[in-house]
Records
---
Amino acid sequence: MNPTPLSAVALSRLRRVLLLLACGFVLWLLWPFAIVPPGHRGVLTTLGKPSEQVYGEGIHLRIPLVQALHTMDVRVARSEGEGEAASKDLQAVRVKVILNYHLDPAAAARAFRDIAPSTPEVAQRIIEPARPEAFKAVTARFTAEELVTRRNEVSEQIAQQLREKLARHGLVLDEFSIANFAFSPSFMQAIEAKVVAEQKKLEADRDLLRIQVEAEQRIVAARAEAEALRLQRQEVTPLLLDLRRVENERLAVARWNGQVPTTSVGSGALPWINLPAAR
């Protein structure tokens, strides 16, 4: 049975579509250009063998069917993780750390060849085991209290160990921080009790200092008052004595009745002069 004209048209269209797909596939296979996007580096492989050269961003030539250009991300990435460790005084501590890293562009070919064909896989294989090893080694150097009071120093030492381990595999540590230290509930209660005791001691010391200052102020005030009284006595007492003497003389005159004594008591005879009475 012969096909209908409609079926012949559909078959012709299908052939055209298949031909276009085949041409596109062949063109893709034979496409001699490869593009490295921004923030990446390219590693060229020839029949599966990577070259030592690292290709920068942009378009590059390759041999179709023989060479392939693989890209490695060199942008800053973030990694975080938690782990348990023991302090110097054998206190269990759980640490959460966050770090930013990137693949060294110059080491892209080496990382591709020796570790993994993508940056996330490289980071997973290198950072995941290095991170807990670093903070276990460092936390064992400090007591649990020092992990809190000397947190910056602990963070710097962990970062230094991670930086050295990552650098051996072409990774660069950009930033590192300790997000949290978590201790056992009993240890946290002990720390809280110690803090409360220290606060009370500081309050007692402040009260004692205040009492001492107030006592010294009272002593200084008393000394100043005594000095003022002493100066007042030195300056005013002679004047008061003169005033008292004058007052005594006035009182004696006021009590005199106008009669001159006619006798005297004593060994020496004193002459008396009789004055005429006032009329």
---
Amino acid sequence: MLTVLIPTFHYNAVHLVKAIQEQCLRAGIIFEIICQDDASKSELNTKNEKINSLANCHFYTNIKNLGRGRNINSLVLKAKYDYVLLLDCDTLPTKDTFIQKYLDEIKKEKAVVFGGIVYHSEKPKQKNSLRWVYGQKREALSVALRKENPYFSTLTSNILFKKKVFLSNPFNENIKNYGYEDVVWVKKLKEKSIIITHIENPTFHLNLETSEIFIEKIHQSLKNLLLISNLGLITATDNRILRTYVRISNIGLAAFFSFIFATFHKKIKANLVSNHPYLFLLDVYKLCYYCKINSK
């Protein structure tokens, strides 16, 4: 009845698998849980191998790194059942009714359902502050806010979908690097008028990267944004950074923003790695960095 897919990379997913398995068993449904590491060659996979000893649970490791989108595509092809629940490995249900709420949506035959994401209220250590503040302000949105812009506010960290819907609309396998592959996927759903239903059924996001790592991932994702925008996979109407970049380029200010990055990026970064990072400065940093890499 339900396949739960958990793509991993250098992460211990045993706790999440056990939590989901327990809820599936309690619900009395036919299910499988498939976890797949994307060739991280991590020592944590020794612990993940324990997943194979759990009823209806399986752990695989890729021989070669596929990238997030292609890894998910390969997981969906392994799925036995008509409905698939995709979960990031660093999440955990907030309630013990998590699976049951999705089962209720399956009964309604919804095509795609996003349950949301939340963060623990306790502020983390300074080195993790940026990821926590960003998550609280930009990702942990209420159902009411998500419904105002259902495609823009959809994440693929906690999402249910019909297998046949996904197979007709897989992740674009030309996107091999990190960043914005989920935006391209959601855009495809929007273009085909596939409705995304938003409900209150969140998971906690647990793995807070350090601010330094988060900024480096932003660099990687913006490089990928440049690539996929050049390929025409997303446009200014799909992304705020692209939209702003087009506007400032049209009035000849892209070079000026690139200059701002070269001159002030260290000072901006000093705030971003502090205990009180300002997301406005993060937005400025991202825009200026995008102008910089676009000028090469």
